[in-house]
Design brief:
Blueprint (H helix, E strand, L loop, with lengths): L8 E5 L5 H10 L2 H8 L5 H13 L3 E7 L2 E10 L7 E8 L8 H15 L4 E7 L3 H9 L3 E5 L2 E7 L5 H28 L1
Parallel strand pairs: 4-5
Antiparallel strand pairs: 1-2, 2-3, 3-4, 5-7, 6-7
Helix pairs in contact: 1-3
């Protein structure tokens, strides 16, 4: 299924050496979006350390890019060795791009990546007042449970198959080509 994104927008995985794009995106989040993403207020130093740790834990990060600038992100990471087959997803979108289908497109990509990595359950935690994330989770048939001021959404995943793997490979190929064209364009402008 093809997502309709704002003009000039593209979703692709982050590649090696693009940590700064993720970090810069998280640093640009307004206070309310930052609070929603991290479940509370966090400092710039926390975000810098968080990005380094996340990407060292083999997280899969998809970004929403407009004119080569990352404006949204979805992070997928395994819950830990004690929880095989389970992963966590977190989504952030900068204010001007919220309510334009970006979160849905990012979550759709994250669900495909989770499926192809054998994660059977995907957890999405958010604050109880984060209605936007709850609505997004419901859109993908997540079961929501409310607990101590937070909400956890759980989505069951299908098993990977050759078609799902091919779909991710094709999307990765398109994303890589887009990243290379963007890099070339920026180098020519410089």
């Amino acid at each position: 299924m093809q997502d309709v994104l704002p003009d000039g927008g593209v979703i692709r995985k982050l590649w090696i050496g693009e940590n700064n794009k993720y970090r810069d995106h998280l640093l640009r989040l307004d206070l309310a979006s930052r609070h929603s993403r991290f479940g509370g207020g966090v400092s710039d130093d926390f975000i810098r350390g968080f990005v380094d740790l996340s990407l060292s834990l083999d997280a899969v990060v998809h970004g929403f890019f407009v004119d080569g600038v990352m404006r949204g992100a979805a992070e997928l990471r395994q819950l830990g060795v004690r929880f095989p087959g389970q992963a966590e997803a977190a989504i952030s979108v900068e204010k001007p791009w919220q309510s334009h289908g970006v979160g849905s497109a990012l979550l759709r990509r994250t669900l495909l990546a989770a499926r192809n990595r054998g994660y059977r359950q995907l957890h999405m935690a958010c604050l109880a007042e984060n209605r936007r994330m709850q609505q997004l989770a419901r859109k993908f048939d997540a079961e929501l449970s409310f607990d101590f001021g937070s909400v956890v959404g759980e989505v069951e995943s299908w098993r990977p198959n050759p078609l799902s793997v091919m779909q991710e490979l094709m999307e990765d190929g398109h994303g890589f080509a887009t990243a290379m064209l963007d890099l070339q364009s920026r180098m020519l402008r410089a």
